[in-house]
Design brief:
Helix content is 5%, strand content 52%. It has 355 residues and is mainly beta. It is elongated.
């Protein structure tokens, strides 16, 4: 190919690109507008909006999307409604592709979707107390076949442990490499999955031997905080408002929910536990556990654990900003719930009571 022909093809390509779809640029032709410029909605409400035709162009059709799902095609109208019957909560995108005069424009608006009911308020009763190793900076806690497993953090002292509930004795333990900061853990099909904090890597072990058999990358999520599973897929928190949904076989991040109440979107969910169809989550540096609907991210309840820390035997030696409540373990066989904290000397069996 000679230089002249190559230059002609290059210029033709640039011309086609510049005159074709401008879906990646802010449209100067159209604008997506909600009624009264409203940007915050609750479950059960209806989004009312329209596509403003800023240059009086001939519109062929408009394709409407919400939460990355196709809703409808508008042919002879520019107004629309979106009923929020069972939406995911959090920051969600409303998007329209406008076809006009041989071109396409993609326009969008970011909306905040909140729950329509406040969370229920709960408190607790202490049922039993068990010894807990005060050297354990608890990051993950989980029962499997009546045996308790724990992941601990801190660079240079992170570990994976198998525990005796009654005595607190460490039955098996391995230390992580110094470059890892251990985080949440979950057990699935006789394998133990342990997160690391900022290393963007999860570790996989044989449950019986604690021998590492593999690892997995985090992909889009920022960090590793909490981990649990529902028997089919994993749920992973990363410190943001998102809880990521992972394929149980490949550990790929397939989707996510965002956690919200009827007034606000929340973040900093640390240790996670799957309990009877809900996600229970510690909120980092707060003496509370939230009960989260895994389908839409709604906070359906908040358990107030204030006062529990006062029951510790090593309270005076703990930093209140660092050695906080963290660690939820539910035994599905006995229906008993246990909680502890970072370097706490006590593991508490608790009963949850609605206020």
């Amino acid at each position: 190919m000679n230089k002249f022909k190559f230059l002609c093809l290059l210029l033709l390509g640039l011309f086609i690109f510049s005159c074709g779809s401008n879906s990646d640029k802010k449209s100067s032709y159209f604008k997506l507008k909600t009624e009264e410029n409203k940007s915050e909605f609750q479950v059960g409400q209806t989004i009312r909006g329209s596509i403003e035709n800023l240059k009086d162009r001939q519109i062929d059709s408009i394709r409407l999307f919400f939460q990355q799902k196709y809703l409808k095609t508008l042919i002879s109208e520019t107004s629309f409604t979106v009923a929020l019957e069972n939406p995911k909560l959090g920051r969600q995108k409303l998007e329209a592709i406008v076809f006009s005069e041989g071109e396409t424009d993609t326009i969008s608006d970011n909306l905040k979707i909140l729950n329509n009911q406040p969370p229920k308020a709960y408190t607790y009763k202490i049922v039993n107390k068990y010894p807990h190793n005060k050297q354990a900076y608890t990051q993950g806690l989980e029962f499997y076949q009546d045996t308790l497993y724990e992941s601990t953090g801190q660079y240079g002292s992170s570990s994976l442990r198998k525990l005796n509930l009654e005595t607190g004795e460490v039955l098996n333990k391995i230390n992580l490499e110094d470059r890892y900061f251990g985080e949440g853990l979950s057990i699935f099909k006789n394998k133990l999955y342990q997160l690391t904090w900022r290393e963007k890597e999860g570790l996989i072990y044989n449950l019986d031997t604690f021998k590492q058999t593999g690892s997995f990358a985090y992909n889009q999520s920022k960090e590793g905080w909490g981990l649990c599973n529902d028997g089919e897929k994993f749920y992973k928190s990363d410190g943001t408002e998102k809880i990521w949904i992972l394929d149980a076989e490949t550990l790929a991040e397939k989707d996510f929910i965002q956690v919200a109440t009827n007034t606000k979107i929340y973040s900093k969910f640390n240790e996670l536990e799957w309990i009877e169809g809900k996600i229970y989550a510690n909120t980092y540096q707060f003496p509370s556990v939230t009960i989260i609907n895994p389908k839409n991210g709604a906070i359906e309840g908040v358990i107030d654990f204030r006062g529990l820390r006062d029951e510790l035997g090593n309270l005076e030696s703990l930093d209140p900003q660092n050695h906080v409540l963290n660690g939820i373990a539910y035994n599905p066989n006995t229906k008993k719930l246990y909680v502890t904290g970072k370097n706490w000397d006590t593991l508490f069996e608790v009963e949850i009571v609605e206020k």
